[in-house]
Design goal:
Layout (H helix, E strand, L loop, with lengths): L1 E3 L11 E2 L17 E2 L3 E11 L5 H9 L8 E4 L5 E5 L14 E7 L28 E7 L6 E12 L5 E12 H7 L6 E9 L5 E10 L5 E8 L2 E5 L5 E8 L5 E8 L2 E10 L6 E8 L10 E6 L5 E7 L15 E7 L5 E7 L10 E9 L3
Parallel strand pairs: 1-13, 2-3
Antiparallel strand pairs: 4-5, 4-23, 5-6, 6-7, 7-8, 8-9, 9-10, 10-11, 11-12, 12-15, 13-14, 15-16, 16-17, 17-18, 18-19, 19-20, 20-21, 21-22, 22-23
């Protein structure tokens, strides 16, 4: 049996412009909190400080827990869409990559359909990606072995109601090498992920049913979907998954969940600041996802710029040991530029904010308007 991973390159293709959230498009795998303000041309990252006298194992563990730092360096089109990204491992210098670069190409024609959403406002750190249409795209990237270039292609088609709201979204994806790209243009798609939308009397999306439509020509019988921070598998045992959305009186999303066969898989709850109207806290619960063997309930706190400032892990049961470093609270402080994008992040990843930070990350951000 073959397995097509449809979220391979989706997780950080477009960061969210916080000044233009209505037009932003989320191509995230699990890091939908990452965002920027203004017309960013490029972002590069490095560690300018690593706590001395820590072992390589401790450093690697800390690096993996550096939740505030995006996993890649980026260059962007003026529209805010990602042009290229590279490098997964952050270094102590700004990296100048000449290989392992992934390049995006987009088809924006889908937006001529003026697909509507009833959300009055989009908020940072809220998982609303499924409520908005997506760009057709092609990713050109390096492939190990004899193939110099490989492509990951996704196309989206929509069935709309009379108010131009989405009823059904079909997502087609396939991967090819450069020499087979031309012949594939005339061939049938390999796989289709289908999302069926349901609305309440206020035209708010309350439910989305995920299912797959397989092409019998290909030996593929399952597909990955991503929801919140976790990958889930649609297959023979889980042929269908249901996403639910709940709203408050102001029309803001306050709860999102994913389930299958009446079994909860994951959920996230949002708490808004009473006066400043931003998400100040999210409560994430992972039952059956890739992280389910770890602490299942995580509480994240954010500042007014949408940046992560604290993570707490709640025990799964009374008396569960929480002394391991990976289960201790994490804290984050920032320095900002004139656009209110952070350029230095102080990370306290060992359970206390006292003393020196565990890591300090810096970002070099270049803007189109400078």
């Amino acid at each position: 049996m073959k397995y097509l991973i449809t979220t391979l390159f989706l997780f950080t293709a477009v960061l969210t412009s916080a000044q233009d959230l209505d037009d932003a498009n989320y191509f995230f795998k699990d890091n939908y909190e990452y965002h920027f303000y203004g017309k960013v041309k490029s972002i590069r990252r490095k560690y300018s400080y690593i706590k001395p006298n820590i072992s390589t194992q401790e450093y690697n563990s800390m690096r993996l827990r550096a939740d505030a730092t995006p996993k890649f360096d980026f260059y962007y089109y003026p529209t805010g869409q990602c042009k290229t990204f590279w490098g997964g491992t952050i270094d102590t210098v700004y990296q100048q990559r000449k290989k392992d670069i992934y390049t995006y190409y987009y088809d924006n024609s889908i937006f001529k359909k003026k697909i509507k959403s009833n959300l009055k406002k989009r908020y940072l750190n809220v998982y609303d990606k499924p409520l908005f249409p997506q760009y057709d795209y092609c990713i050109k990237g390096p492939e190990p072995g004899e193939v110099k270039d490989a492509f990951n292609i996704a196309k989206f088609s929509y069935i709309l109601d009379k108010q131009n709201k989405i009823l059904i979204e079909n997502e087609y994806e396939w991967g090819v090498s450069l020499d087979s790209l031309q012949s594939l243009k005339d061939s049938k798609k390999i796989i289709c992920t289908v999302r069926t939308y349901y609305y309440n009397e206020k035209s708010q999306v309350t439910k989305i049913i995920y299912s797959i439509k397989l092409n019998p020509k290909y030996d593929i019988d399952r597909v990955n979907i991503n929801f919140l921070r976790t990958d889930f598998e649609l297959n023979e045992y889980y042929p269908e998954m249901i996403a639910n959305f709940k709203y408050d009186a102001q029309g803001r999303i306050v709860f999102v969940s994913l389930s299958s066969k009446e079994e909860l898989l994951c959920s996230e709850e949002y708490v808004y600041h009473r006066k400043l109207d931003y998400v100040e806290k999210s409560i994430y619960y992972d039952i059956k996802g890739e992280y389910s063997s770890k602490i299942k309930k995580t509480v994240r706190y954010y500042n007014e710029y949408g940046d992560l400032i604290q993570i707490d892990f709640l025990p799964d049961f009374e008396g569960q040991p929480m002394t391991r470093v990976s289960r201790r609270p994490r804290y984050y402080d920032y320095e900002y530029d004139d656009h209110k994008n952070w350029i230095k992040c102080y990370m306290y990843l060992e359970g206390t904010k006292e003393g020196k930070p565990s890591l300090i990350a810096e970002r070099e951000i270049i803007y189109y308007d400078k």
